[in-house]
């Protein structure tokens, strides 16, 4: 075995996978606020090209490609965050005490951030979470969104609509960013890609139905889904938080979900 500390490859556990999929399923209602306008634009373009507003196989294919592009971008960016996390933790693993402390602190910070996000949704303050996005990020979102909207006609009719969906992985989102933090805490790119991919797949039903059939989701129903989303974030945030506490010697009930650990 070489002297460099590397994290063992750990597949996503059932509690993790269930939590990420649930966040995606419930978070689809929030995604309508960000992705909905762009979905409406390209859905209208598809209808114009097809010469009908009725659902056709072309509509289904293009909406599916758009959403697959989103899921792939989430998975790719999640893997990159995990790769950076693995390098970050590995830099401290030559000193066991410091390495353990860094991982504990990361678990506490990441878990707390995710839980606070969950509380924001749970108490109906999700709009306040959007306002926490730094102004430069908001401006960048405006530019990216404007660029995508201006090029919808070029992208909507063929496989390049995958790229239109992939752009969403870069947009500010209080659902995706906590998930990226979680990916960073795992330090395992493959595992993070699987988890973020699941989250992306979970959002597909709502956005797909919105783009093809529904057109809108009532504010009351969206509020109910937001509260349920908040509860699922509490569960997700507790996983790294409890891991951090355990590393500090604080015994708490916890799910058996491994986080970054060097090979001995």
Tell me about this structure.
Keywords: Membrane, Transmembrane, Transmembrane helix. The chain crosses the membrane at residues 17-39, 71-92, 104-123, 161-180, 192-212, 224-241. This is Urease accessory protein UreH-like transmembrane domain-containing protein. InterPro entries: UreH-like_TM_dom. Helix 1 packs across helix 9 (189-214), helix 2 (57-90) crosses helix 8 (176-186) and helix 3 (96-122) packs antiparallel against helix 8. With 264 residues, the chain is mainly alpha-helical. The chain has helices at 14-50, 57-90, 96-122, 126-131, 135-150, 152-155, 161-166, 176-186, 189-214, 219-247. The longest helix has 37 residues, at 14-50.
Question: What's the short version?
Answer:
With 264 residues, the protein is mainly alpha-helical. The protein has helices spanning 14-50, 57-90, 96-122, 126-131, 135-150, 152-155, 161-166, 176-186, 189-214, 219-247.
Question: How would you sum up the global shape?
Answer: globular
Structural class: mainly alpha
Separate helix tally: 10
Number of strands: 0
Q: Tell me the number of structural domains.
A: 1
Helix content: over 70%
Strand content: under 5%
Query: Radius of gyration, rounded?
Result: 20 Å
Distance between the termini: 9 Å
Mean pLDDT: 76
State the major sheet: none
Please provide the ordered H/E string of secondary-structure elements.
HHHHHHHHHH
Poorly predicted runs are 1-9
Organism: Haloferax profundi
Domain Urease accessory protein UreH-like transmembrane: 20-238
Pfam families: DsbD_2
Protein name: Urease accessory protein UreH-like transmembrane domain-containing protein
């Amino acid at each position: 075995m070489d002297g460099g500390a590397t994290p063992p490859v750990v597949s996503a556990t059932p509690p993790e996978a269930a939590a990420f999929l649930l966040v995606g399923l419930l978070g689809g209602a929030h995604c309508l606020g960000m992705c909905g306008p762009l979905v409406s634009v390209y859905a209208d373009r598809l209808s114009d090209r097809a010469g009908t507003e009725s659902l056709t196989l072309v509509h289904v294919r293009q909406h599916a490609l758009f959403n697959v592009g989103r899921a792939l971008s989430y998975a790719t960016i999640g893997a990159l965050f995990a790769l950076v996390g693995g390098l970050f933790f590995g830099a401290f693993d030559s000193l066991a005490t410091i390495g353990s402390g860094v991982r504990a602190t990361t678990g506490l910070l990441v878990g707390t951030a995710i839980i606070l996000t969950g509380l924001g949704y749970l108490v109906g303050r999700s709009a306040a979470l959007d306002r926490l996005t730094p102004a430069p990020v908001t401006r960048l979102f405006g530019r990216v969104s404007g660029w995508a909207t201006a090029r919808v006609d070029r992208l909507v009719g063929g496989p390049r609509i995958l790229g239109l969906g992939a752009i969403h992985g870069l947009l500010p989102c209080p659902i995706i960013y906590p998930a990226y933090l979680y990916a960073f805490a795992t330090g395992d790119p493959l595992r993070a890609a699987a988890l973020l991919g699941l989250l992306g797949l979970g959002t597909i039903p709502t956005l797909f139905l919105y783009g093809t059939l529904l057109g809108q989701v009532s504010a009351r129903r969206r509020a109910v889904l937001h509260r349920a989303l908040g509860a699922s974030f509490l569960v997700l945030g507790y996983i790294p938080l409890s891991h951090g506490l355990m590393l500090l010697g604080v015994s708490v009930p916890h799910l058996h979900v491994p986080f970054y650990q060097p090979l001995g």
